[in-house]
Amino acid sequence: MPSLAPYFRDLDYSYALGLFPSAQLMQKRPELARRLLVSSRAENSEGLAALREMCRLHHVREERADKALARVSGKENCFAAVVFEKFQSQLSGGNHLVLHHPGDKGNLGTMLRTALGFGFLNVAVIRPAADAFDPHVVRSSMGAIFGLNLRYYDDFEQYRAQFPAHALYPFMLDASVPLSQAASQAQPPFALIMGNEGSGLPPAFAALGQPVRIPHSGEIDSLNLSVAAAIGMYAFTNQAQEREV
Amino acid sequence: MPSLAPYFRDLDYSYALGLFPSAQLMQKRPELARRLLVSSRAENSEGLAALREMCRLHHVREERADKALARVSGKENCFAAVVFEKFQSQLSGGNHLVLHHPGDKGNLGTMLRTALGFGFLNVAVIRPAADAFDPHVVRSSMGAIFGLNLRYYDDFEQYRAQFPAHALYPFMLDASVPLSQAASQAQPPFALIMGNEGSGLPPAFAALGQPVRIPHSGEIDSLNLSVAAAIGMYAFTNQAQEREV
Fold first, then answer.
1. What is the per-residue pLDDT across A156-176, written as a single tens digit (0 to 9) for each?
2. What ipTM did this prediction achieve?
3. Suppose A47 and one of A19, B6, B7, B96 were both cysteines; which one would form an S-S bond, judging by CB atoms 3.0 to 4.6 Å apart?
4. Is B218 on the interface with A (CB under 8 A)?
5. Does residue A61 sit within a domain?
6. Do B227 and A230 touch (CB under 8 A)?
C-alpha cells in the first residue's frame, strides 16, 4: 500500500476517524480494514484496547501516523482511525431510503445514522451527491455506514429500474397528503425519497408515487433535510409497528 | 459603534450571515439591527435589494465590509450580513423546548429552526451550553432564532421555578414509555427536555416527569440530538393536532 493520501473522492480507500466509527467498521465490515492508525498522543483507553484487539484478530496492522491523522481529521483532533476500502452493496428488497442529490456532508452522515436506527437498511443515493465515504460523513454517521447497504445511482431511473415494485413516497413541500396519513396507509416495501437541501425534489416526482408533506408552520421555509428524513422514517416505521400491535 | 470584532461570546452583538437569516432578522426583530454589511463581491440579486429596502426603512446603515464578512463567516463565503444586538426574551406559558447542556452549534441551530417550524416558540437553554448567538448557530437556524422566545438559565431549577406547572417530558434512552404513547396522552402546556449530545440527561431527570424513549434499533447507540428533538416535537404536535380533528 502506498503512503496515505489526504482524502479525496477518487481514492479507493477512506478513513473511519475516531474510536466509535472505527469499532463499527471492525464489527460490521472487518474485511475492508487495511490499517489501524494511532496517534502518539492517544491515551490508552479501554476503547482503544478493544479496537486494537479487533484489528489484531483480523490481521490489520497498526502504525503510528500523527501526520496522516492530523491531515485527515483537520481540527477535529482525532487520535485513532482505520483505513478502509470503499464498498458498494446490492440493495435488498426491504424498505429503502432514497436520497436525491444530497449536498451536505453532515446531513448525509446524520441520515445514514438515522436510517440504521429505524431499520432502513438500504440507502440509494442519486448523483450528483455528497460523497458518503468522505471521512467527515463516515464520522457524522457514527460508523452507521458500515451497517447499511449503500449504493450510488447515476439517476433515479437507474434506481427505479432495479426496484420497480416499491411504493414511492417523495417528500415535497407542496404535497397535499400529510405524513401521518401517508404513513398509516403504507404497505412495505416502500421507498422514502428525499430531495436536495436547497432545491428539494424536481416537480416531476409528484407523479411518481404518493407525495408526502411534513406539516409545519409557515414561519420556516422548510425543515433541515436530515430532520425531515428522520421524521419521515420515524413516522413510517412507527405506524407500521402500531398496526402490528 | 466601534469597529467590528471577530465574533466571541462576550460581545453584546453578533452577525446574521447571509440573505435569508438577515431577512428573518429584519422581519422579526428589526429593532435589534445595527448595520448592514455588504461585500464588494455581492451580486445585485432580488434578495439583496429586498434586504436593503428593509434596512433603509428601519434606518440601518449599509457599509462595505469585505474583511469583516470574510473573518466572521470563515470559509462559508458570505456576501451580506446584518449586525444585531443580542437579546433574551421572557418565555411565555405555551409549550417549551428545554435544551440541557447542548454542546454542538450545528445541532443547536437546527433545533431552533425545527422548534419554530413546529410551534415550540419558547426555548429554554440550560448552561453550560453552546452560544445560540454564535453566527454559525444563527445561520444554521436559518434565522429562526429571531422568531423565538429564547432564554438561558444557569440550571434546570432556575427554569423550573419560573414554570412549575408545565408537564415535563425528559427524553432518555432507557425510558420505558415510547414516544407515541407519551405524545398521545400529553396535555399542554408541556416541556420536552433534551440532554447533551454525548452524555444525555442526568439520571435524576427520570423522576422529574414522564421519561420518554424514541424507539430505535440496537444497531445505533442513539439518534443525533437534533434528530431526536425534531422527532419529539413532531410527535407531540402531530398527536395534539390529531386529537383536535
1. 999 999 999 999 999 999 999
2. 0.95
3. A19
4. no
5. yes
6. yes
